[in-house]
Sequence to fold (149 residues):
Amino acid sequence: METHVNEIHIRYKERIPAPYWKQIKSSKDAAEMLYQTWNTDTIAVHESFKIVLLNNSNKVKGIYQISQGGITGTLVDLRILFAVVLKTLSVGILLAHNHPSGKLQASQPDRDITQKIQKAAQLFDVKVLDHIIIAPNGDYFSFADQGVL
Fold:
């Protein structure tokens, strides 16, 4: 009897050369870039959770949307998040999600998921540099700036 097994392919393709990647030097840099790339038609409708993938110089390799939820929340599957981080060989990440209400305050679930991701990231020697909450008008809350991270 012949055994059949699926073949696994892991792929990450850089389309923009590294010298042209945007470097993140502050929470403001991160928030402005995130807001520019967020879908303005849906930012006030539902929550989305994204990660910004960084190289060792804090240059942006890419942005990946982990989840899209409802009006007041979204789920974050750590297995998917870290599959993307590891596939892209990223050494640092920024976490980001939006608050459709415009309320720029970290909820307890926001704090809990950040801690959970931080603990898991330590196992892979990946740095969680910040968690940014974006409001529909472009204002933001930075966990790092507020000493929450």
